């Protein structure tokens, strides 16, 4: 689905780019069609525009007003992959340890704060200051990759590849959250999430080539109320676990769960279709309704929702370098990085 249109309101696909042409297919909300371009109407108001779409081995036309153009940004993905690996190569060659921010506290970090220039909030993050005055800052999300360039009793100067090759200053007390990432060479596995298009691509390197492992539409986080947008950045996958439970409004009582959860930043997980336990007799219907929203618009509280079979495939693909963990945590078989656009 390199370039496609997302149907935001029910409409018709017609044989020609005008509203009087023969209807060849009904297009319902959330349907997606590959597009080959945009054209002007061939009759009536010449300012009307239509997308030319391809489906069932035929071409058709759908009104621009009824759809939203989306695409998978292959160029951005590979640019970020190359940039991340260049950052790692340079660090390794200079004998600099690669760190990951590790400050996740289950059920903690509920603050929101102001949105920084990258769109990230303070939820489960640490402040990265732009200079030694400790005034302006960005929110550095949990699991962000970085190197330490300088440290003393006044500050810790770090370089973070994800944010414009930026140099930021941490307060000395934050140093305790920097843990050895265990990265000693280039990353060969990436998960790329495009929040604008609500899709995801997973690639793996074999020799000198990158192969697509799997792709899917997803549902990312919505920035509203007690929900947070899925954070922007470059994150080292922490671990997977068979089931992720979540609490209700009291932040204590477990009310629902989702399977095959993969933690990538703070309390943000990739996981299956979630649902609350009660009422039991409608749980499957409610899960089905949530599944229908995959690939539409951001809706989760921070996590990335997947179709059940898709996340099970990813869960197995990540592997397990820590078998027998007392809580069932599975650290990926090789370091795996998530890139969130």
TrEMBL record:
Q: Kindly give the InterPro entries that the UniProt entry links to this protein.
A: LD_TPept_cat_dom (IPR005490), Transpep_catalytic_dom (IPR038063)
Per the Swiss-Prot or TrEMBL record, the active site comprises: 271, 303
- Name the domain of life: Bacteria
What molecular function does GO assign, one term? transferase activity
Pathway membership of this protein? Cell wall biogenesis; peptidoglycan biosynthesis
Output the Gene3D superfamilies linked to this UniProt entry: L,D-transpeptidase catalytic domain-like (2.40.440.10), SH3 Domains (2.30.30.40)
Q: Is Glycoprotein one of the keywords UniProt gives this record?
A: no
Segments forming domain L,D-TPase catalytic? 189-334
SUPFAM superfamilies associated with the record: L,D-transpeptidase catalytic domain-like
Q: Which GO terms describe its biological process?
A: cell wall organization; peptidoglycan biosynthetic process; regulation of cell shape
UniProt KW keywords: Cell shape, Cell wall biogenesis/degradation, Peptidoglycan synthesis, Transferase
Q: Return the CDD domains for the record.
A: YkuD_like (cd16913)
Answer whether the UniProt record assigns the keyword Transcription to this protein: no
Q: What is this protein called?
A: L,D-transpeptidase family protein
- What organism, scientifically named, is this protein from? Leptotrichia mesophila
